[in-house]
Amino acid sequence: MPSARIDARERLIVALDLPAVEDARALVNELDGVVEFFKIGLALQLAPGVQNLTESLIREGKKVFLDYKYYDIPETVKKAVSRAAKLGISFLTIHGSRKLIRAAVEGRGESGLKLFTVTVLTSMEAADIAEMGYSPHTVEELVIARARQALEAGSDGVIASGREAEVIKSISGGKLLVVTPGIRPQAYPDDDQKRRTTPREAILAGADYLVVGRPVTEARNRRKEVENILEEMQCGLDVVTAAVAGS
């Protein structure tokens, strides 16, 4: 039996990294019908009305990825995750030790919330992690170590660049989902992304979901830019599906 086709629209997450809730809502409205998954992160965390925006998106049937990278003592993380689960958040980022991850897993209970452990930010390279005290490890070694830790502690997946997606799938036996930020179309500048990948490259490497921010939010025609990204993602997904069907 042939594998079911994966729709790219189910795998694209647009980051609402905008100055105000009103700007975020305008973008959601502009992308209605082509994007159903949105990331709310630190850029909007303290903006007036952000909780109302979050709740309204969920009521409308859209998915919300809460990217606050919870990092605190386990009991505090447990309580914060429990609150997010009760709101109906779909994805949530956490960061820390196995004990912290296990507390987050306990906090989400039987809800459908999926927990993603941060590995290494896509804006970081070898010099950055050395400055943080992780030398002599390479970026890939640190990503692998954190992915193994996430798997052992019960995370659903990890946040990692497309450059490490393949090895994460390999070491986890495909058990970890991979959400990949730092996505840049071929002609788009790097900005502060030191480990960028294109939408197609990330999908072919094994990424399950892509998070795209500035290439969409700064585009002249944001809906058209999303359609272009979805087309590129779909090409990659079709290749992956065909390869699985033929194996």
Structure description:
There is one protein chain. With 247 residues, the protein is α/β, with parallel strands linked by helices. The protein has a single domain, classed as Alpha-Beta Barrel (TIM Barrel). An eight-stranded parallel barrel has the order 1-2-3-4-5-6-7-8, surrounded by six helices. It contains ten helices and eight strands.
Could you give a short description of this structure?
The protein has 247 residues and is α/β, with parallel strands linked by helices.
The N- and C-terminal alpha carbons lie at a distance of 12 Å
What's the oligomerization state? single chain
* Strand coverage percent: 5-15%
Fraction of residues in H or I helices: 40-55%
Keywords:
8-stranded parallel β-barrel; TIM Barrel; single chain; alpha/beta; 247 residues; 45% helix
Describe the secondary structure blueprint for this structure:
Blueprint: E1 12-15, H1 21-30, E2 37-41, H2 50-59, E3 63-70, H3 74-87, E4 91-94, H4 98-108, E5 114-118, H5 126-131, H6 139-153, E6 157-159, H7 162-171, E7 177-180, H8 199-205, E8 209-212, H9 214-217, H10 222-246
Parallel strand pairs: 1-2, 1-8, 2-3, 3-4, 4-5, 5-6, 6-7, 7-8
Helix pairs in contact: 3-4, 4-6, 6-7, 7-8, 8-10
